[in-house]
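Model it.
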Amino acid sequence: MRIDKLLANLGYGSRKEVKQLLKSGAVKVDDKMVKDAKQHVDPNTQTVTLNGEVIEYKEFIYLMMNKPPGVLSATEDYAGETVIDLLELEDQVYEPFPVGRLDKDTEGLLLITNDGQLAHRLLSPKKHVPKTYFAVIDGEVTEDDVTAFARGVVLDDGYETKPGELKILKSGIRSDIELTITEGKFHQVKRMFQAVGKRVVYLQRISMGPLQLDETLELGEYRELTDEEMELLLENKEK
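Modeled.
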């Protein structure tokens, strides 16, 4: 990778600003000053320093966010705030994107990465990656609903969903449930409950594949995945 591209990608300035940094003699590769912006470096085997500080390069970034309501699961939107807008600039420079979508008013676990291969595997219908949601339902959820979801329900457009695992946590005028599905159709959880005559009033994703939502994350907060979470995800990537 060219040294100017490496530094620009890591947020050390525009290409023009990075060239000025190089001209000033502030950048070294393996203790040798580098002023030529076109010089190629291998950040995985060579040590790059800026003003004596080692620059840590990583190709991919993996973030877990507790998505707040009112924010779009998109990389950019001219009308509203996106989950990428919530990231620090040092993370935005990796040009990450949300893996899948959560509705604007839905909260919870959202994986944000720039690893397209991993994202594809997590989203591929062939992989049947389970996603679990906690929801509050306006209406009494019954064992008949559990049975219906286990068979698959017909949505408003005629599509019959794959089986879903519905757990009733509390049943009454307002019911609390957990639902695990392996698909990601548009507004799927809400439409599945519409199919049995009920309405979702609160929705939160609590897991996706091997990832569980970190309950210590406040709405809008995010963190890098732990080594253990990365191992679980990469196992998933290789399957």
